[in-house]
Design goal:
TIM Barrel
């Protein structure tokens, strides 16, 4: 058994209340004060007056296993998630081999369960080998194998016909299509947002249109098919506008935003440092403001990290040659709390909801709240102590983030998954 004391949790009104929690056989047994328990068989956790939240939920991580274990493994990636307060993560299928058939999917799912320190939900790909112009996967077989949703994350589905067929299949089986939106015909070799900073650094720019035009296409396809269409890592003001309009039209579209797009812009890129290179790229200040506004008005449903580990050697190649992506699992809550709650842009309840109950609701997950009888997936954060983000402390195998050296509040004290302390 576990007994948690000296913690505060948010009530429905967003007020902090002191509480104690008793956990037995993986589940929350009681919530209250001065709860009775067996001293000899109970581990007592002193939360040091920290914030108790439901375990955070991340709809978007890359664990690189199998195929690129020098960057990350399921074990190291899930340890990184636990260190960030996450107890459920959704793993992208851009690994090698791709989980595009039931045999490969089941093998990966088995590995996730064996190695994972937190709960790992596995996406299947939309098309064979993530080739976005050819053959659809067998949706029925992959749903039966346990696929939670379908995505070609890392590449946009290039033909409307393939996306239409995919959405029809996904709608039939009641599963979401999760889209990395990127029109390759509008890329023109871009590696950074097309703007002043791209010109100053003499780097080819990525147009906002690469993202927004595919979303505009896809929301109409979602309307026609009745599919739940979820957009990954929204980054532009045009994308927010299209999604807002689609929601008003009653189309079943949802979306996420990544912490780095909320915090940084292309103007923050100091030079040819690929730790600032991600896809979609850091955009302009008016895009960043549109993302914040989109969260606050409900256009954007939740926050997801897009945790994308790469080796230091790869990232040392600079913007033109380095792969896209930064790590995010371990720094997400700290950065968001420091930049937005401490500055009164978001309330603490809003931030916690975007990282817990909102993603749970999107994908019909029984998680994201703290209630008696539920699985004990919990996190405790220290909101009062300031610390510096140091790469030496990372649980991830990779350290590719622009936030090294930043002063933050909100470090994770404990993460509990299925009633077990995992961090």
């Amino acid at each position: 058994m576990l007994y948690i004391k000296n913690v505060q949790k948010l009530n429905q009104k967003g007020q902090l209340q002191s509480v104690e929690v008793l956990i037995k056989e993986q589940k929350i047994q009681a919530i209250g004060h001065n709860l009775e328990f067996d001293d000899q068989n109970t581990t007592i956790i002193d939360g040091k007056n920290g914030l108790l939240t439901p375990g955070l939920i991340d709809l978007h991580v890359h664990f690189r296993e199998p195929g690129a274990v020098e960057k990350e493994t399921i074990l190291s990636g899930s340890k990184a998630a636990a260190r960030g307060g996450f107890t459920t993560v959704y793993a992208m299928p851009n690994v090698n081999p791709v989980p595009d058939n039931p045999e490969t999917f089941r093998e990966l799912d088995k590995l996730n369960k064996k190695e994972g320190q937190v709960k790992i939900k596995q996406y299947a790909s939309i098309s064979k080998d993530l080739n976005s112009e050819t053959t659809l996967v067998d949706f029925k077989e992959l749903v039966n194998a346990g696929a939670v949703a379908f995505t070609n994350d890392g590449v946009g589905v290039q033909t409307a016909g393939l996306m239409y067929q995919a959405m029809k299949e996904a709608a039939h089986y009641g599963k979401p299509i999760v889209a990395h939106t990127e029109d390759n015909s509008l890329l023109f070799g871009g590696v950074i947002h097309a703007g002043e900073r791209a010109e100053e650094l003499n780097l080819p720019g990525m147009l906002s249109l690469t993202e927004s035009t595919q979303i505009a296409r896809d929301v109409l396809l979602a309307e026609a098919t009745g599919c739940h269409y979820h957009v990954c890592h929204v980054s532009t003001k045009e994308s927010v506008r299209v999604i807002r309009d689609a929601k008003k039209a009653g189309i079943h579209v949802t979306c996420e935003v990544a912490p780095h797009h909320l915090i940084l812009t292309d103007a923050d890129i100091p030079g040819d440092d690929a730790n600032y290179k991600m896809n979609p790229p850091l955009r302009a200040e008016d895009d960043r403001q549109a993302l914040i506004e989109g969260l606050l008005d409900g256009t954007i449903d939740c926050i997801a990290t897009d945790h994308a580990p790469h080796t230091e050697a790869e990232k040392a190649k600079g913007f033109k040659e380095a792969p896209f992506g930064i790590t995010g699992s371990e720094t997400a809550f700290q950065l968001l709390y420091t930049h937005f709650v401490k500055t009164n842009i978001f309330s603490l309840k809003e931030l916690v909801d975007w990282l817990t109950i909102k993603p749970a609701e999107l994908f019909n997950l029984e998680a994201g709240t703290i209630e008696v009888g539920q699985y004990a997936d919990l996190a405790i954060f220290d909101l009062s102590h300031e610390e510096i983000i140091e790469k030496e402390a990372f649980a991830s195998k990779s350290k590719n983030t622009p936030f090294i050296g930043e002063k933050v509040f909100g470090s994770t004290l404990y993460t509990i998954c299925n009633g077990k302390i995992v961090y």
